[in-house]
Amino acid sequence: MAAFIFDLDGTLIDTTYAHVMAWQQALYEADISVDGWRIHRRIGMSGGLLLHALSDELDREIMPELAKRLQKRHGELFQKSDCGCRPLRGAVQLLKRLRGLAIPFGIATSGSRPGINPSLEALQINDDVVIVEGKKTEHPKPEPDELEECCKRLGVRAQQCFVVGDAIWDLLAASRAGMFSIGLLSGGYPARELFDAGAHRVFCDPAELDQSLYQLGLADNT
To answer: What is the DSSP string of 161-189?
Structure first.
């Protein structure tokens, strides 16, 4: 039995760039100037890992107390953004299609409740869907903990899972978990980087994945 494990931001919800702007503003308020592209390449990591990676890249130490304040401020700014938690093209329809095909799916995200609740509501995801929040696992992506926990709760084996993500961190985690990975271009990473990170297939967005389920042997080509 096949199952899907989806990332959330940039994979099902069009929030990647809202997160970039929120992080950039939070850092600016702390007198840390960071170009947006540097932040973009870290989206998909947990907040703690993102800040640690940026501190290494900028050669400026971000102490734990400051990191905590920055994560809190990022959350506040993100919630105030006008992104509207819009589902990406075809995301709602893809999830409905999987339900119709009786293919189980779950969400493994570095985000957490209540911050992700508006996104889940926009996707029409109910309490019966497995949601694994990054802060509730020991190690966030690119470690495989979130994916392994989701797999366990779905009641399937790793070899039966299709992991769908828009960032290299999702795909590296899938590789470490021994799962088949699918990259989406909707988070802004080029196809070559997604393939290099371990993606077995790359599609533009959820709509193209929906139209291509037959390539995975999961639906008729109709």
So the answer is: EEEEESSHHHHHHHHHHT-EEEEEGGGS-
Helix intervals (H) in the chain: 16-29, 36-40, 47-58, 64-80, 91-100, 117-122, 145-154, 168-177, 191-196, 206-211
Which residues constitute the domain of residue 208?
3-15+85-216
CA 215-126-168 angle, to 5 degrees, is 45
**CATH label of the domain that carries residue 203:** 3.40.50.1000
Tell me the Cα Rg of the chain.
17
Residue 221 lies in a domain: no
Task: Render pLDDT for 6-54 as a digit per residue (tens, 0 to 9).
Answer: 999 999 999 889 999 999 999 999 999 999 999 998 888 888 889 999 9
Among 85, 122, 89, CA closest to 210: 89
Distant-in-sequence, close-in-space partners of 128: CB < 8 Å, separation ≥ 6: none
Q: Is residue 196 part of a domain?
A: yes
Of 43, 59, 80, the one marking the end of a domain is 80
Look up the pTM and report it: 0.90
